């Protein structure tokens, strides 16, 4: 071996310096895939650069053999590779939809776990379509400042994709939970369980995760994390920041405690590096993704 694989400044091409490949070998456990798309944004654009920002920031996580406070090294238990970014024609949202669904379906059908880096949150719609092909209707565990259930007929809207996903039957609202919400929604008719940011911030991690698990139960679950779930103090680099959110530590604690859930896929969306400061948001996102991978690895039977 020439040089150190753990340094924080050389050859920062992939997430954590993982191998770059689209081969789905039998021994592979999980895939990290980027989707640099932001044409469905309703506020500040720039999340097309999110996957690159997250990968660059992940270099700061490469030196620690075992992610604190896990007691094993990810590489010892879980084989992960970077799938690279999906490449679609500029401005062609329909091609993006088709490509995301096709590639995600291929990965999931091969029995691999998929963690997707966005991009704006609209990308979760084709991802859920792919998950539905393999796993059927799932529970949705959604971390966000917004419910993203706007009743809109707009074809591309990162605030309406879970409205459309519900109409398509991709997830079961009665078994789904939204965490960190702190913007307007219809309190009387909203179909999902909401653990708003104030409630989460005033209850223990154990109480939060107990509530999540009581709603989801044993259903297969898709975890979708919008970085604006975090307070702007911890994630300024996003298109629609909302004060009063979670700390990065609280979010990491919650994800770390979800080992009992049957998680079939995850995404991390809405990082917009142009509005970031000192890579604070990208680093938070990269760390959350690493926590997701450790969570999946902890569930693997060894």
From TrEMBL:
Binds 2 manganese ions per subunit. One of its GO terms (molecular function) is agmatinase activity. InterPro entries: Agmatinase-rel (IPR005925), Ureohydrolase (IPR006035), Ureohydrolase_dom_sf (IPR023696), Ureohydrolase_Mn_BS (IPR020855). It catalyses: agmatine + H2O = urea + putrescine. One of its GO terms (biological process) is spermidine biosynthetic process. The keyword Phosphoprotein does not apply. Its EC number is 3.5.3.11. Mn(2+) binds at residues 121, 144, 146, 148, 226, 228. Keywords: Hydrolase, Manganese, Metal-binding, Polyamine biosynthesis, Putrescine biosynthesis, Spermidine biosynthesis. Its cofactor is Mn(2+). PANTHER family: ARGINASE/AGMATINASE, GUANIDINO ACID HYDROLASE, MITOCHONDRIAL. Catalyzes the formation of putrescine from agmatine. Belongs to the arginase family. Agmatinase subfamily. NCBIfam families: agmatinase (TIGR01230), PRK02190.1 (NF002564). This is Agmatinase. It comes from Pseudomaricurvus hydrocarbonicus. The gene is speB.
């Amino acid at each position: 071996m020439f040089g150190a694989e753990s340094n924080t400044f050389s050859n920062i091409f992939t997430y954590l310096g993982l191998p770059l490949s689209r081969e789905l070998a039998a021994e592979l456990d999980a895939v990290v895939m980027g989707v640099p798309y932001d044409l469905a944004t309703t506020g500040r654009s720039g999340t097309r650069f999110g996957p690159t920002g997250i990968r660059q920031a992940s270099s700061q996580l490469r030196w620690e053999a075992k992610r604190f406070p896990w007691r094993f090294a990810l590489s010892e238990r879980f084989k992960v590779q970077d799938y690279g970014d999906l490449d679609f024609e500029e401005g062609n949202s329909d091609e993006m939809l088709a490509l995301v669904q096709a590639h995600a379906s291929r990965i999931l059908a091969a029995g691999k776990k998929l963690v997707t880096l966005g991009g704006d949150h609209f990308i979760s719609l084709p991802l859920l379509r792919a998950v539905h092909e393999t796993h059927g209707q799932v529970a949705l565990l959604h971390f966000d400042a917004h419910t993203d259930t706007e009743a809109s007929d707009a074809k591309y809207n990162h605030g309406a994709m879970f409205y459309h996903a519900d109409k398509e039957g991709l997830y079961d609202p009665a078994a789904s939970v939204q965490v960190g919400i702190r913007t307007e929604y219809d309190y009387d008719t909203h179909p999902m369980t909401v653990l708003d940011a104030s409630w989460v911030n005033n209850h223990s991690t154990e109480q939060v995760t107990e509530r999540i698990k009581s709603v989801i139960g044993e259903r297969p679950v898709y975890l979708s994390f919008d970085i604006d779930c975090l307070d702007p103090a911890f994630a300024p680099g996003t298109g629609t920041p909302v004060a009063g959110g979670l700390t990065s530590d609280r979010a990491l604690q919650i994800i770390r405690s979800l080992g009992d859930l049957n998680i079939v896929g995850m995404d991390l969306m809405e990082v917009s590096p142009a509005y970031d400061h000192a890579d604070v948001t990208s680093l938070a996102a990269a760390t959350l993704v690493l926590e997701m991978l450790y969570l999946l690895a902890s569930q693997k039977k060894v």
